[in-house]
Structures are given as structure tokens and as C-alpha cells.
Write a structure and sequence with these properties.
Length: 459
Amino acid sequence: MMENKKVKLKFLGAAGSVTGSNFLVEILDKKVLVDCGLFQGDSNSEEKNFEEFDFDPSSIDFLFVTHGHLDHIGRIPKLIKDGFKGKIFSTPVTKEISHFILSDALKIMGFKERDGGRTALYSESDLRSSFEMWQTKDYGEEIGVDDVAKVVFRNAGHILGSAMVEIRPFGREEKLVLTGDLGSWPNPLLPKTENLEGVKYLVMESVYGDRNHESLEGRNKHFQSSIEKTIKKGGTVLIPAFSLERTQVILFELNRLVENNIIPSVPVFLDSPLAIKLTEIYRNSSKLFNENAQKLIQEGDRIFSFPKLKITESAGESRKIEDNNNSKIIIAGSGMSQGGRIVRHEAEYLPDEKNTLLLLGYQAVGTLGRLLQDGEKGVEIDGKMVKVRAEIEYIDGFSAHRDSDGLVEFVGETDGDIKKIFLAMGEPKAALFLAQRLKDTFGINCVAPKVGESFILDF
């Protein structure tokens, strides 16, 4: 019988909060990070991003990246800047996506710096170094953490290329799995989250741990009716959308509605340079789609294109959208209205009751999106007060995260004698609710760690 050995797990971010994903796993003398993301949501978050890491970056041997959202990758170049010299691994498409996401973030930081803001979190040189150190592995390919552990990426079904990080310390069959974000199901584009085997310890997201989404059918009907109602009034539909995954799902759904003559054909402006680039990655990665999406493509459907879709890459083209006084749909970043082109459109269109702002997913506390969701009748945009007369509608069924029932289902489908579940990447209320639900359902010990907490795992 093999002697039991210890693994140390420390929560450095996304504990008691949704953002800032950053977990440290120590196996003997090897130090492994999973994710190194930005804290997002308010001014306090920005301050946290500039703080020193709670470890010596030069002591880290490996960094495994679950997916390309900024709250999972946003401090990677800072990690390099502060001395990291180890190896970075992700799936191939996550690396490709991350390059665009981090480059865009650096550009935005540069704008803020020129406007009198603080110095950027990292430089172009740090960004370049990150990708020189960054290697890729497909789902299921084994990665050796020297001679102390084996790591494999499993499909998380959250966004394109998203992965769960499966760690087998000391050659044991029992595993520590860090899920990153888990995809909701059914999903119009991506396959269902891969089933896991032999799990002993599970670090799992809990964003929607205390609530459920609308059904896919209900979501689509709500989306359709909101658009139809606004067009009938002669208004404009504003959709603040995350450039990654959310935009592609919206385009997929609009493709279905327009090409089947379910809604009137009006101009649809995709007004986000980053979303335009990422949509091209999606087009070139159809082998990662689910069977239904692949079948539509094989039958000749250009699933992200349809009549009257207009791509506006330049700032000048974006400004000209306002010259169109007829009904239209504008899709622009950012998804929580924290900067990006959508903010200028909101200043223009929120005062008119004919218009509709569609919030398609989670809006973090402290964001403009959350203020609008909570019913504020006046908001400050670029230093000016803007009256809110437009209709504000919230549809949470577009979330790329599993809801409470989905998370319970995931645990139920996970094979292994699970000793403990750590609930991270969620606000305390959601994580604690889910912890109790999992205890009641499966009798598994569940905890919702705080930032800085460490746990010894017995292997």
C-alpha cells in the first residue's frame, strides 16, 4: 500500500467573489498555479490587480489556464513582469483567444493611462513574453509536472477551448480537479461538459449556485419578443455583449430568427472590433462545436452571418450608426457596460422610451450594467447624467455558466469518491447556498473558502 502524501491548495482569488481566478497547488517542491485572472467590478478590484502577488512569481513552476476570459487570464503578463519563468499551458484555441483578449486589455489600459490614469498593469514586452512561454495541449493529452504529477485538460463546455484542469499527484488514480467555469447545457454551439472520473477533491465554480436560468426555449422566446416589440415601436435594441462566447451565441440566435423570417429584417450592427476577431476564431474552430452546430455548417448555413448584418470595425463606422434613425439592433462591448462602444450608444439611446436595453447575463455589483438592471432612472456616463427612459430587460438564460440545478447535476454525474468540494468563483450567498444543497443531496463535505485560505489534501 502506497504511503499517503500531502498536497496543499491555496485560494488566492475568486474566493468569496466571482472574479480574480487564481489558485495555488503545491505538490512536494513543485508549485502549480491554475489561472491568473483580473479582479473586476469596481475601483477596489482595480487596486487589487496592482497589488503584489501573495507568492513569489519566480517560485512558480507551471501555470495552467482554464479559458480565455479576462478574469481568468488578465494578470498573466503581470506574473511574467514580476518574475515568473515557468511553463504556461492551455488548449490551443484558449491561447489564440487569450492573445486577442490581453492585447485588447492592454490597449484599453493605454487609453486610461493617456487620460491621466495609472500606469498599465503590464507592457507590450510582458505580453510578448507571455506567449513565448505559452504551450498548448489538446483535451485528453497528458502533461507532466516533472515527476510529481500528471495534468490533463477536460472539456468544460463553457466557452470555446475552455477546460477543467485534472491533476493526478504522485501517479495516483485519485484526482484533484479545478473546473474553471462550467458551461450551461443545452448549449447552441458547444458540447456538454465532459464527465469526470476518479475525483477525490473538486474546486468548482458557483456563480449561479443559488438560482436557475430560464429554459433555452423560454430564453429564446423572451429574446424574440423583446426584439419584435421594440421594432414595432420603431426603436433600437441595444445589447451590451461580452466579445467572447456571448456575441457568438447572439449572432447564432439572430441568424435563426432572421433566416426563418421569425423577426422583421432590420440592420444589425456588430460594433466591437474584438468580437469581430473572436467570431472569426469561432468560424475557424467548428470542429469544437456540438453535433447540431456542425451539422448546420455542413448543410451550408453560415451560422454567424445573415442579411443586413453590418460589421463596424472603425470608430468612424461606429459613430455613423447613429445616422440610421430606423429600427436597428446594436451589439457592442462591454457586457457589463464598463467601457467599450456600448457606453456611447447607451448615452444616445437610453433617454428614449422607444428603445430597449437587453442585459443578457450576470451584471457584477458596482458596474453600470448592474445599476441599470437594478432600475436606476439616471446614470452617469462620461461625466454626464443620462436619463433612463428606455425599457431595461434582463434575460439570464444566455449565461455561459451552469445554474444551480446544472451544478448539482454535474456533481451527480462525476465519478469518484469525492472527499471534499471547494466552492469558488461565486459571491458568498451563492456559494453557501450551493454548499448546503450539495451536502443535503450527496452528503459531501463542501466549503466556501475565503481569499488566503489554505487546505491540506490527502493523497
